[in-house]
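Deliverable D2.4 — example input (structure tokens):
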């Protein structure tokens, strides 16, 4: 879900491994449809999930909040890796009034965890507040939400926008301290780390009856417990441990490309980086393929710009940042370019920063590295007292998420200091297109503007993995997909001897 920042570090940009866990674990709620299994035997399988973290004391990223969002909430729609919007709790929708209205028909038989039905009246009452969170500043285009009848709602807009359809990923849940959603798992009573199968789930009870989340001081500690058969799944495996885990016969490793990419954010107001030709030269200086191999050990996809490479409206023949160190050195000759780079202390960040520093030095630019705490980086962004920041930011699968990050008027943009007037104008053109042809053209223009006047050096999309005991059978997945997307379809392996060997 694309969220509005109170403190943006918690919802859009991640500087710690654990903040990533919060954003990615939410994908448990987005599972693929299967046939009705109302007559199936009650679920009894227990899935023990280990999660390593870097800070056990963060109140924002606490275990209780993590457990609440695992598999409990769903949206009216779900997003494909290509950024298409597909019905989920919604059965279908249509757009009358020249695209200024959405009539959303709800699936029948959907219930909240408290047993009450999901009705048009209930959804219409919940949606305005939820849309404000999902849409950020674009919520100003929303005019009204009303129930049409018990099975449908109408969302009315002030003007057509493709972002409004993307906002249908909005989570449907009741207000209150406990999350009462519609998903396949329910937080167990009096627990913050134990989830139970939703016996009344409208797509059928999950085969896993109990999900138990355990926190560990590090991924390595959780990994050791997985190898001892005290866990069934390691939630997230960084590329540092990936090669070692892949050799295990008792563990299946599923790799996937995350929605986050590494960025070197450049402050347009910084005297050193004010000239867009300097920012273009820094982009020319970076060999992203080499950077991915050296800094990410091959576990990533080199960036071609801000927009995810699989996005459905991106042109086939895509202009990209040209790797041209000689031209970069020519532009920077005589400038004596020196600038500071803030980064969070993290092994991956440090490797990325050192490789960037080396490549910049080769074209005559000096990047001085300064490790800082999250609060320091956040404060620098708000004040504009930085030259560059190396970070990871959510950048896919939709352009609404990118808009929230880069548009200066978005609450997701820290201090309005990411991006520039050029990219703002390009985003606004995308936001108000009214047909697919115009939209594709506007997306191409947006990509080109980021190349012409780059507010960042776009580096690489990161790869992660889930490590899952072969005690569980995971349905076949499209290459690169997250297995958590179909977790409700996992089944215990029928060969109990295999389970005992783990």
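Example output (designed residues):
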């Amino acid at each position: 879900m694309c969220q509005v920042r109170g403190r943006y570090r918690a919802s859009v940009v991640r500087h710690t491994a654990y903040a990533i866990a919060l954003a990615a674990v939410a994908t448990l709620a987005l599972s693929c449809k299967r046939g009705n299994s109302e007559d199936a035997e009650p679920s009894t399988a227990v899935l023990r999930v280990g999660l390593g973290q870097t800070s056990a004391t963060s109140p924002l990223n606490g275990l209780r909040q993590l457990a609440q969002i695992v598999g409990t909430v769903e949206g009216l729609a779900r997003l494909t890796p290509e950024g298409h919007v597909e019905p989920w709790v919604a059965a279908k929708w249509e757009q009358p009034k020249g695209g200024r209205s959405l009539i959303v028909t709800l699936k029948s038989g959907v219930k909240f965890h408290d047993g009450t039905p999901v009705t048009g009246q209930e959804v219409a009452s919940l949606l305005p507040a939820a849309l404000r969170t999902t849409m950020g500043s674009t919520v100003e285009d929303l005019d009204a939400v009303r129930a049409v009848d018990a099975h449908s709602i109408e969302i009315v807009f002030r003007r057509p926008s493709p972002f409004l359809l993307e906002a249908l990923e909005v989570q449907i849940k009741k207000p209150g301290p406990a999350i009462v959603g519609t998903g396949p798992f329910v937080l167990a009573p009096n627990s913050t780390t134990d989830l139970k199968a939703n016996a009344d789930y409208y797509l059928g009870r999950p085969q896993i009856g109990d999900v138990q989340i355990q926190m560990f001081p590090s991924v390595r500690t959780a990994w050791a417990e997985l190898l001892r058969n005290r866990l069934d799944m390691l939630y997230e495996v960084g590329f540092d441990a990936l090669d070692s885990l892949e050799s295990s016969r008792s563990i299946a490793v599923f790799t996937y490309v995350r929605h986050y990419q590494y960025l070197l954010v450049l402050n347009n107001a910084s005297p050193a980086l004010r000239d867009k030709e300097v920012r273009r030269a820094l982009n020319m200086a970076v060999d992203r393929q080499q950077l991915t191999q050296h800094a990410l050990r091959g576990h990533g996809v080199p960036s071609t710009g801000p927009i995810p490479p699989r996005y459905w409206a991106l042109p086939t023949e895509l202009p990209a940042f040209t790797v041209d160190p000689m031209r970069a050195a020519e532009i920077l000759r005589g400038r004596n370019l020196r600038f500071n780079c803030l980064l969070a202390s993290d092994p991956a960040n440090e490797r990325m920063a050192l490789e960037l520093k080396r490549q910049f030095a080769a074209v005559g630019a000096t990047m001085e590295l300064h490790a800082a705490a999250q609060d320091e980086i956040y404060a620098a962004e708000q004040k504009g007292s930085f030259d560059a920041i190396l970070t990871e930011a959510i950048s896919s699968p939709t352009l609404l998420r990118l808009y929230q990050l880069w548009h200066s008027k978005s609450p997701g943009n820290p201090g309005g200091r990411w991006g520039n007037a050029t990219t703002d104008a390009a985003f606004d053109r995308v936001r108000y297109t009214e047909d697919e042809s115009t939209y594709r053209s506007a997306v191409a223009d947006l990509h080109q503007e980021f190349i012409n006047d780059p507010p960042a050096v776009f580096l690489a999309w990161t790869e992660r993995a889930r490590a899952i005991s072969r005690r569980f059978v995971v349905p076949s997945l499209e290459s690169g997909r997250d297995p958590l997307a179909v977790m409700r379809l996992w089944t215990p392996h029928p060969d109990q001897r295999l389970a005992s060997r783990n």
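The two ends are 36 Å apart (CA to CA).
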